[in-house]
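Side project, low priority. Logging it here so it doesn't get lost.
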Amino acid sequence: MYKTRQATERILELVEDGLLDRDTVIMACLKYMSEDDVKDMAHANEFFLDDEDEDLDEDLDEDLDEDE
């Protein structure tokens, strides 16, 4: 049977076996993902409180305005 998340399972296994450092994997994921991906992941996992989400949205909008 084909596993659909082979790479994910392998990385988790390497972390569990102590061959990869958790913090290194976390930083690699966050740096690889787009800001929208990180924001979506944070929302899906309820990392931000609702009022902080609104502040983050405003900060992101301001940053985008400055780049134009």
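Brief comment: The mean pLDDT is 85.
Revisit when time allows.
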